[in-house]
Amino acid sequence: MTAPHIIDPAGLLGEALSQASPDLMRSLLQHVINALLSADADTVCGAQWGQQDPQRQAQRNGYRYRPLDTRVGTIDVAIPKLRSGTYFPEWLLQRRKRSENALITVVADCYLAGVSTRRMDKLVKTLGITGLSKSQVSRMAADLDEHVDEFRHRPLDDAGPFTFVAADALTMKVREGGRVVSCAVLVATGVNNDGHREVLGVRVSTSETGPAWNEFFADLVARGLTGVRLVTSDAHLGLVEAIAANLPGATWQRCRTHYAANLMSITPKALWPAVKAMLHSVYDQPDAASVNAQYDRLLDYVHDKLPAVCDHLDQARADVLAFTSFPTGVWTQIWSNNPNERLNREIRRRTDSVGIFPNRQAIIRLVGAVLAEQNDEWAEGRRYLSLDILTKSRLTPQPTQQEEPPLQLRAKPNPKDTKRLHHSTGLDHH
Question: The pTM is what?
Answer without folding.
Answer: 0.66
